[in-house]
Specification:
The structure is a single chain. This protein has helices at 24-35, 38-49, 67-80, 89-93, 113-125, 136-143, 147-153, 170-175, 195-213, 232-240, 274-282, 284-288, 290-300; strands at residues 54-59, 81-83, 102-109, 131-134, 179-181, 219-221, 245-247, 253-254, 265-267. The chain is of the alpha/beta class. The protein has a single domain (24-300), classed as Glycoside hydrolase/deacetylase (TIM Barrel), CATH 3.20.20. Helix 1 crosses helix 11 (274-282) and helix 2 (38-49) packs parallel to helix 11 (274-282). The structure holds zinc ion (ZN). Zinc ion binds next to loops.
Length: 304
């Protein structure tokens, strides 16, 4: 897979223009900063100013050719972070872990079968449980073998791995320890979405996931991440639906005093070289997202 040149093999992603297009400038910068050890310096610096902070990262689809790179990423991340399970957040904040590293929690968006088939076993072997954010309608589409057209229509990006089914099955979702909602239909919460549709996307997805998994669903992850995909109305519906934790993708470290209704995540993909993995998680991009975080926060809380 030649991601560095932005060229994709036949097996590659066929939909969208998102995470697979890594800019050459960013890659060059990441390699340079990694080479001069600036990224590790920033990681240590962030550790000093955010003691006992937790960084959340999010992945999307997972290609079979990225399996060994994903393992290398985990090796790298383990050097700088204490990899946590979601049920360890509180005790980590309380200082129960004998570590001087910040914590890191892995999340996966969209409910793609590759995440379950390839990434989950690697993580489980290391004792790491991620959170999978699932849009139930996508899982339903797998039952009717319509998942590719569903993904195309609802902007879920995917690789064509050797297995033909791209969505997870309900059987797989049931096996996951930590499941969160990613709306019913992978719906961006634009201002134009009606209140009844917002309620359906937020509350129904929680209800269906709880029914199928037989677990309480505490986590919700916004779809899209652009500023116009967050709305105050949807935020209130999410809170009223009973979600404890709401996740964005606006890069920052989560601390004991951060709001659980505003958990920011840094984006990683399994194909990212280690230098880019370091760049994305060291904390530099947290500064670049400062304005966006502020804008999203103000929008959700209706602050002018
Ligand atoms: Zn998504």
């Amino acid at each position: 897979m030649n991601l560095l040149n932005g060229e994709f093999s036949d097996l590659m992603l066929i939909h969208g223009n998102g995470y697979n297009r890594i800019s050459k400038v960013k890659l060059f910068l990441a390699s340079f900063l990694f080479f001069i050890k600036f990224t590790s310096f920033i990681t240590y610096f962030m550790r000093v100013i955010n003691r006992r902070g937790i960084r959340f990262v999010n992945y999307h689809d997972f290609h079979t050719s990225d399996i060994s790179n994903f393992s290398s990423q985990l090796d790298y991340l383990s050097k700088f972070y204490h990899l946590l399970n979601p049920n360890q957040i509180e005790s980590f904040f309380n200082g129960d872990f004998n570590t001087n590293k910040n914590g890191l929690i892995i999340t996966f968006d969209d409910g793609l079968s590759s995440q379950f088939n390839y990434a989950y076993p690697i993580l489980k072997k290391r004792g790491i449980e991620p959170i999978f954010f699932i849009p139930p309608d996508f899982i339903n589409s797998a039952e009717s073998k319509q998942s590719k057209s569903f993904a195309d229509k609802h902007q879920i990006e995917y690789y064509l791995n050797s297995n033909t089914e791209i969505a997870m099955s309900w059987e797989q979702v049931k096996e996951i320890a930590f499941v969160g909602s990613h709306t019913m239909s992978h719906c961006r919460m634009l201002e134009s979405i009606s209140l009844s549709d917002i309620q359906y996307e937020m509350s129904q997805s929680k209800k269906i996931l709880e029914e199928f998994t037989n677990k309480k669903i505490h986590d919700f992850c916004w779809v899209g991440g652009e500023l116009n995909t967050y709305s105050k109305q949807a935020f209130q519906v999410a809170v009223n639906s009973g979600y404890d934790n709401l996740y964005t993708s606006n890069n920052s470290i989560h601390t004991k005093t951060s709001s659980s209704k505003f958990i920011n995540r840094n984006n990683l993909e399994a194909c990212y070289p280690i230098s880019l993995t370091a760049f994305q998680t060291c904390g530099l991009t947290d500064f670049l997202y400062f304005k966006k975080r502020k804008s999203v926060y103000k929008k959700l809380h209706d602050i002018k």
